[in-house]
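Predict structure. Chain length: 439.
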Amino acid sequence: MSFIPHVVRPRADVEIAIDTETAQAALELELTILRVRQPHDGAAMSLLGTPWPAWFVPQLAALQASSFSTKYLWFLSQLDALPSASIAKLSVHRGKLLDGSMRLLEQLPLQQLCAQTRIELIGEIGVDAGGLQREWYTMLTQAILDESAGLFVATDNYKYTIAPHSSVRPARYRCVGRLLGRALLDGQVLPFHLCTPMYKLLLGLPLSLLDVQFMDQQLYKSLLYVQTTPDVAALCLDFTVAMDAQHVVPLVPGGETMAVTVDNQALYVQVMTEYILFGRIQRQVEHFLAGFFEVLPPEWLAPFDYKELELLLCGIADISVDDWKQYTSVSAVFTTTDAIVLSWFWDAVANMTNTERAKLLQFATGSTHVPVQGFKGLTSTDGRLCPFSIKAIEYEPGMLPRSHACFNRIDLPVYPSRDELNAALQLLLQMDMTEFALV
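Prediction complete.
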């Protein structure tokens, strides 16, 4: 049994009503009980429960049957069709990156929601020609996903979901939604790997018991056992779930006195699944989706499946040295003699772990992830293709490579030996990103 949460807009007075005949959840939003959406509804309905425009339905069906490349080109065409936007300049202190950025995103005027982002790090040298923007997106994502922020928690497979029962103001999730939407507008890919149910919520796709495994493997196995055991009464369960030692939530009205039996065990698994995947994070999800769709219309995501949406948002996490090397432009300053240094550089990159390559990529471009199209898709801040490049510079003792993230370029000193180049790169990788001067 699957279900599709029907989200309209953030409300504080949202309730869940259970239809015990179908074991489906309906959400009472804005004092109106909405019919439960069935999986087939998605063909003509948006995530927000409104019909797609008639002209879009056949186009959507054709797009959904297309390759990812075709869908991605269509998505880019929607971005290109946007009117020229103004610039939204966001000035933040690096030491207060999370709070400062969340405040700015929350206060952003509606007319600037789709404006291009320009970043100023207060008190630091550097004009944002693209590198600071990429650095800001990457570092803010890392701050948002940090456990101390209280916004998201890591799942068993190291992806993220909204923290259940988070004490953080729900409005912060609206800011996170705006951030992800703006990243797509700005052509940025983020290390923001959400778990599968979160992507399905963004797309309005059906959720089921199978999706619980992406949040908590042990809980999934437990529910699977409850669903199939013939002696479920021996488990002494009722229709409640404990939030903590002091708080118990009824899954249905009167759930505290409703024992789980062989006659209702399927219903128990269904309502527990709905609670785990949506009910316990409902308000946060509503704000998150509201923020996202304030920036991008839902039909722009409709052609993609959940795996493609992750690729669209996060780019390619595994960094291919061959692809990187193939789409690198080398400065003519490299002489035939100096070419050996370039060979040493690529040997060093090939011997790095993927984490180390990601940090080197962040140093060079401001982002830890590769664009959807691979390295051939690297762009400058104005959206134009801007390949990664390496420029040879004269070596001085103790010199480290320099980056120009706005141009996706590394200035590589012509080191006299392989060992000195390797030592310089290792020192670079040990540095904190705050020690990089990105322009």
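Summary: The chain has 14 helices and 15 strands.
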